[in-house]
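hey so i finally got around to running the thing on that chain from the lab meeting. sorry it took forever, my laptop kept dying and i had to restart like 3 times. anyway pasting the input first so we r on the same page abt which one it is
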Amino acid sequence: MTKYHTPVLLEECLEGLSIRPNGIYVDVTYGAGGHSKPILNRLDAKGHLYSFDKDEDVRRNLVQADNFTFIRSDFRFIRRFLRYYNVSAIDGLLADLGVSSFQLDTHDRGFGYMAGGNLDMRMNSGGNLSAASVLNTYGEEDLLRILSDYGEVRNSKTLARAIINRRAKQPFDQIQDFIDFLSTLSMGSRSRYFAQVFQAIRIEVNDEMGALETMLNMSKEFLKPKGRLVVMSYHSLEDRIVKRFMKSGNVQGHIEPDDYGRQLVPFKLINKKIIIAGAEELERNPRARSAKLRIAEKI
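ok and heres what got predicted. didnt touch it at all, straight out
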């Protein structure tokens, strides 16, 4: 079994789930099983864990247990698969929204700007849209939208125009070629700039915002009263959506009063401030530095 990812804020996630041994839990991002396996260790024979992941490569790290079900699918389809397995209510849901170390470091996946390889970035290798497709086919307005909204890239307008001009002469194909192109346009910290651009393209390729919003809405439907929603995000756009949802029950953050003027919300916040990694964990796992953990309980 390949060890390719160190779970971030593991104990905090487990504590946040408040695991009951006979409970039903969902881990929507199995990855290398870094969170799923410890959850299973806390369940008895009556408990069950359902784990989702659309990345085919995770199969090399699947745990084998009678009370475990792996579902190779995007977590936006939670409702479809839980209904298929006759699950109507769950005790907790965990979402670690980060890209795994394995995905970042694998040459031919195209997630990391330091790994080289093709401009791919598909979490589901069977998906139709790749990073190269985005760079070579999107119009200037759409490029500006994703660079600005998903990456908060400071010179989004200049970069979008430059991409259009460059691809007219030569399409983008390889990461190193794209890095060489970006190097002439980067602002501030070079590594931060590259990370923001790659993040923006990756989010678009995988429709990560759409999947996140759908998954959060499904969690409200399936969580039992006192069921826990535990979400770890890695950039401000995701975190804002999670924060609004946990406070209001919707991704817009609007709290609608009932007929009596009472503001009813479906969740109670377990931590009002985000939980972040401490110095010891950051020394062990530098990739934990951007992790933000939020926990809420279904009322």
